[in-house]
Amino acid sequence: MARTGATGSATGTHGHHKAHPTEAHPTEAHTTKAHGHSPADDDVSQRLLDSAATLSYDPATEIDWDAPLPAGEYGLNPEWSTLYGTRLWDEMTEEQRVTLTRHEVCSIMTTGIWFEMILQQMVLRDQYLKNPADAGFRFALTEIADECRHSIMFARACEKMGVPQYRPNSVIAQAGRLFKATAKGELAYGGILVAEEVLDVMQRDWMRGENVLDIVRGTSRIHVVEESRHMKFARQQIRERMRHASPARRRAAATGIAAGAFVIVSSMVHPGVYTAAGLDRERAVAEVRANEHRKAMMRTSSRHLMAFLAECGLLTKASAAVYRRVHML
Question: Which of 3, 168, 194, 296 could be cross-linked to 56 through a Cys-Cys bond (beta carbons 3.0 to 4.6 Å apart)?
Answer without folding.
Answer: 3
